[in-house]
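pasting for ref
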Amino acid sequence: MEPSDHLFRREAGRMVATLTRVFGVHNIALAEDVVQDAFCRALEVWKFRGVPENPSAWLLATAKNRALDVLRRQRTAHTFAPELGRLLDSEWTLAPAVEELFAANAIKDDLLRMMFSCCQPRLAEEAQVALILNILCGFSVNEIASAFVSSHAAIEKRITRAKKLLAASKRLFDVAAPAEFAARLPAVHRALYLLFNEG
C-alpha cells in the first residue's frame, strides 16, 4: 500500500517546517528534498511490509534520521540554521538537538513560524498564500491555480519566485514580533480559509 494524498498533505508541511528550522530558511530546497526522500522510502518499504500502525510517526522518524545523515555528512554547521549552529556542531549535541526539534510541540511551533515566514512583506499576498499552500499544505500547482482561478504557468512562476525570496531570507520569522505579526496575519488567514475550502 502507498501513502495517501491525505497523509502527504498532512505530514509534508509539518516535516518541511521542522527541517527548515534545522537546515535554515536559506536551505528550504534541502528540507523539501529530505521530506521527498522520506516519502520515497515509504513507497519502497510499505509496498513490501505494509503501512505501519502509525504512518505519521514512521515518516517523521525517517525524515529525522535522514536529516541527521545530512548533518553528519555536511558538518559545517554555519551552512545550516545560524541559531542552531552551536548545537549541530558536535556529535554529542547533534542527535539530542534534532530529537528536540521533532517533538510534537516544537513541530506545531515550527509550522506556525513557517506560515508567517512564507508571508514575506516583499511578496504579493497571492504569492504568500500560494507558498503556504504549496510548501505547508501539500497543494499541487494545479490545485492552487484552480483556487486562484489562474493558469498553471502563472502560479508555478509565482511559487518559484516566492521560494527564491524566502530562501534569501536571513532567518525564520519570530512569532513573538508583534509589529510584523499583524501585517502577515491576513495572508495566513486567507491560506487557512483556502486550505479548508479547497481541501
